[in-house]
Amino acid sequence: FNSLGPHPGYDAHASHWCAADADADPTATAEEAAAARAASAALVRSLLPAARLAELRENGFVVVDGAFFATETTRPPAAAAKDKEEQHEQLAKHLARAAARTGQAAQGVRTDRVAFLSRAEARGCGLQGEYDLLLAVAAHLNDHAPDVVEPSPFEPVPPGTAARPLTNPRHVQAAEYGPGDFYATHSDNGLSPRPSGSSSSSSSSSSS
Q1: How many angstroms separate the CA atoms of 120 and 128, rounded?
Q2: For residue range 140-168, what is the model confidence (pLDDT) as tens digits?
Q3: CA–CA separation, 144 vs 41, rounded Å?
């Protein structure tokens, strides 16, 4: 369903929040980025302990509940409520600017409306904690790759490696579902027929 080859992603163990590029979060200082990474890594470890990783390896998927951040604020209740309202409005604007639909309804895949958010955009919507958590998952799974990732004849596309195959995107997907909308389990990515050791790497990326 995807006419373009998947992007190989970025190193899941590196931070780009303070980098001088369009996808960075210029509102985050180095200290804030380090604290956010540590908090996200701790939450991921609690959500995906060894028993859940074993379940992931056995079943190929795992359901994670309770992965929500409680936003701390020193703002008065009325001001905090106004902040939250403005963040919801900002997210609605991103979704309204997105393509009307994903174009996959006819195939029975999904009917939701989506928007792709950088870290700075996620922060503007009050979703920076969720952004950080999603990107921390790939690093955690890479740390346990031998216990989670099954051997494959395909080589990951750099910056992924056989030891750390999962990479991260720079944008996370926010989806909006209306009455009757659905999402069916599927994968947009395919695998190249070229096995390890061939002259070209697989076109499939293990982005989270």
Answers
A1: 8
A2: 999 998 888 777 888 888 888 888 888 98
A3: 13
